[in-house]
Amino acid sequence: MFCPNCMTNNDENAAVCKKCGRNFQTGVTPKENKEPMSASFAIPVGRTGLSIIAGYLGLLSILPPFAPISLIVSIVALKQLKKNPGKLGKGRAVFGLAMGIIGTIILLFILLISLGAIS
Ligand SMILES: [Zn+2]
Predict the structure, then answer these.
(1) What DSSP designation does 42 have?
(2) d(Cα 55, Cα 73) in Å, to the nearest integer?
(3) How many angstroms does the Cα of residue 50 sit away from the middle of ligand 1?
């Protein structure tokens, strides 16, 4: 039996794939090796707490006062992820970092304008 899911050749009378566990009768694979990006972002499983916080702060960075907090938390979260390569959540931390940088630049502009530095 040739498995169309993981491209593995199995025994001729095999009921399930030896590699991915796909059932040849029903065509159902019990557990996908890779979860979709959207689902991995929505379900916070196996992620560090800080990267989850960084993700939410990234969203809050639309409001400028949150941006520097998001920036700092995201940097700490990324450092934590480097120490624990098994942990997930890099996408959230990077998102928080990017939003934090953009928000901080906007915040600095607002401050400079209000101080009269830019006319
Ligand atoms: Zn397979």
Answers:
(1) H
(2) 9
(3) 36
Q: What is the pLDDT of residues 58-104, one digit of tens each?
A: 888 888 788 999 999 999 989 988 888 777 888 889 999 999 999 99
Token pair for residue 62?
A: 């639309």
Q: Packing angle between helix 49-60 and helix 67-83, nearest 10 degrees?
A: 160
Ligand 1 centroid from CA 20, angstroms:
4
Which backbone phi and psi does 8 adopt, to 5 degrees? -110, 140
How many other C-beta atoms can be found within 10 angstroms of the C-beta atom of residue 12?
A: 6
Count of beta carbons in the 10 Å neighbourhood of residue 32: 10
Taking the model in full, what pTM does it have? 0.52
